[in-house]
Structures
1.
Amino acid sequence: MLQVSKRIIYSCPFVPAEWIAAHGLEPSRIIPKMTSSGAPNGVCPYAQAFTEAIAEESDAAAIIFTTVCDQMRRISETAAARTFKPIFLMNVPHTWQNPGAHRLYRDELERLGRFLEKLSGTNPSGGDLTGIMSQYGEIRQQILDSRPNLTARQFSEMMAAFHHNPCCFGILMPKPTPQGSRNNLLPVALIGGPLTSEAFGIFDLIEQAGGYVALDGTETGERTLPAAFDRRSIAILRLSNILRLSKDDPLGTLADAYFGHIPDPFRRPNSEFFKWLKQMIDERGIRGIILRHYLWCDIWRAEAQRIADWAGLPFLELDAGDGGLEPSRTLFRLEAFMEVITQ
Amino acid sequence: MNEPRIISFDEWDSHYIQLRDAGMMEPSYGGPLRRHVDDGGDTRLLRLRYDNSAASLRLWNFLLTEEDRLRAARAEGKKLVGTMKDLGTVPVMAYSLPNLVAFYPDGAWWIPCVMEMNAGLLSIASSLGIDETFCPVRAMIGAFVTQAHFPLPDLLTCSVGATCDDFSAIAQRLEGLDHPILWWEIPSRRHPDTNEASIILPGGFSAPVSQVEFVKSELERIRISISNLAGMPLDDKTLARGIRAANRVRRILSELRILVFTAEICPMPALEMQIAEMLAIHYCSDREEAEIVLCELLTEVRARVSEGVGVLSAEAVRVFWVNPVADLRTMNLLEDCGGRICGTEYLFAHALDEIREDLPPMEALARIALADPMVGSANDRAQRIIEDACAFGAEAVIISRIPGASHCATEGEVIADLVRSELGLPVVEIEVPPITDAMIPTLRTRIEALIETAIRRNE
């Protein structure tokens, strides 16, 4: 019997996994591999890697791109020309300070819902959605709670694993490994765009150099988690939707948790990103900041110097080109950076 | 009418005296071109070649005196609105009110070319971490830092969303340097879903009604800020008047383009035409004068066309040009290689389309903003290019890549493929930095190859 694929692939943290799952589909925020052939001149290596990765994901039912960055918006056209799979381009507003932007995001979720319904035939009820929101919210909290018991790499990989396959995450949840002593390691923040699969080695290199990632502010990491849903509110929402007692709006709650919460430098203005970073620096006792960005990523690269000046902490900028992690060179730079921190 | 010719900068010295002695009437900002080099440091002018008409001289003088006009406007108590990125929508709103002057800070991207890097704007941008991997529009941040090229605006607006990352990132840095920005969202234009209410926009693209409504609500925010700045309401009646005035400029430009692009013998060089088109975006800080400047140019072109004279050979190959060039000299180069401009899409085709006057003004402006070729797909943009290239009888297409611009990374290939497959025209993609001198041989070879291919195809 022919099995119909239900997997929906995407890479942007502003796509709510809960909404896809509520439509009876499998959300899968993938981590691509860096391409071996390299990206054409001017093309972001990550955008290229994602585009090539989706071509290899034969079991995908559809692919979602967003407008969070111009390169991804535009490369969705290139991707569409290379695949017969349905592609959905979701408008994620860059502004956020007025209600219209929030409404637009919410409207886009509804449009995405219609796209997903065509694929699955499922039009989820409010109860369906709140159930999944509750379940995913609990898993995210478990992951966050496990942070002290995991190495930075394990923590980041656990989040990536959840995003890759949240439907089965409970079954596949990796076992925490005691992290060992961090007494002699320097707490640093790793910020920047999304990681490719080989880039997770950066966590090990940082530890080899004498530091540890006390804050994963990459797009793959904890920075881009949606706000925690208030358990009590979700429970009430769920009950009222099941019993059809009220017109409470779980999709609105979901939209707020994502659009109203995730700090990112692409947003205009991007002040909330700086607020978040300040708060996390204070909370985690961060001693230095490592920004890892892709070649041609204007959004992060333009902010590099500002972050360095603003934070008043030792700052290291790592440029990720087509060549992957480049361990020897990166380690050399990280070691020098740790020396600067300790001076 | 003096015999149309393309002349050098040096030739303009004596030619200016001849025109003046022959009774040329000049506006207050008139004068010989050389003063812009001697007093303003616009040394690139020395290396360009120009149309020899009085109308062209006025166009150049108008372009190169914008800073004076802005400072004069401020001295008169007018408020200045810097309208970043939207290319032709917010200026229409601002110019509807008598005590506002809009200008286009993005225009600073030509300063490194015109002043041949002597202004140091790109170095300032680099020192702030905005290096050469960004679009040359990074010069804008240098211009804000030096405050030597335009006065700081009283209100700074910027459209974001479906815009290039370069610009959005640079504008954000500007805000980080204490230049507050009123951001407004332009969503990525999409094709309407089945059964979704939709609208055909000026220029022929379609969009869902919901997107038009959203853009309208964003422009309403701008309207409030502009009204507050002006101290008077920008009501629909006032705005409708502003739209009519904007359309007058657009109509003149439209006739000018049609005449120049379709004439048997090219009546106006590519360089002057590019500048003329730029006036439609922001009127070079004086809408009424921009209209007069374009009218004079149109009068000159009409006379040349009716007499069957022009500035290039009748055999010049008709080239459709995509994207503006950071180095103005490139437009001369095309003509040196045996080409002529016959259709353009300089990123703002929507600013040349007439704004509907039979609609509520905010609705009409929202539609024109959403008709921006850059906020939709490269496929959409390519379709418009194809239609225009057909209409103007283009024989070849040049896609001029802007170094570092995020949209140029992928769209050139999309546009080139579609043009080749639908029109069968030869296409070449070139990259044009602010100063091309070191690259002229390479650019020349590529353009000549295109021209030769087009000629062989016609034989």
2.
Amino acid sequence: MNIELILFGAFALLTLLSAGMVIFARSPINSAMALVSTFFFLAGIYVLLWAHTVAVMQVLVYAGAIMVLFLFVIMLLNLGESPTRGRPTLARLAGGAATVGLLAVLTITLLKLPQGASAMGPEAQASFGTMATMGQVIFTQWLFPFEAVSLLLLVAMVGAVVVAKSRI
Amino acid sequence: MVPITYYLLLAAALFCMGMFGVLVRRNALVVFMCVELMLNAANLTFLAFARMRGDSIGHVSAFFVIAVAAAEAAIGLAIVIAVFRSRGSVLVEDIRTMKH
């Protein structure tokens, strides 16, 4: 049993546990804190996949910026625990059935995939997932989508200010 | 080394948990958090296939997904604030009309 498999198992278990807490926690604050830990454990899994840069961005952007926004909104709206009356049981059953069905289909499909990862030479291994390699791809092949994303973020920034300010 | 299929199965499980939350939870904020879970599952799939093929394009796609998720969170939370101001509730079943 190698160390990578042990680490993967631990991170995967913790990720799924915290994701479960996000779904089932009564208070939105507890959901948000569980979501933060989900993001941290997922960053660990990204490192196991040699995606170091994306792992760092995950912690900075998701666990940092986005979750601060969530917590800020929860505290601004002063939300308490959700009321005890649940959705009608039929809706819950339908949601559960749809989820289990999708999971079954995905599992059956994924188990048919080839297992292994591509073998990389030591040089490719050293540069895989680094900021330099990603920057090379972004600024050569993906320059236009990159600029489009910057425009999207600008539009989102202006839109958030406008929507949250005016009374709708 | 861990088979890529394990990562993909984890991503599938995470996506399904997010979908269950979106379908079942009533608080719009928690629904948003579950959407973030689903986006993260998609990211994990991108990264797993990037590792499988030894190709950095998966990393770039995950980067774009993170940027779009940031934009989505900003706009979505602004909408939640606006709805809360006009209706005093963030429960999804209280939001039935576009205008009143």
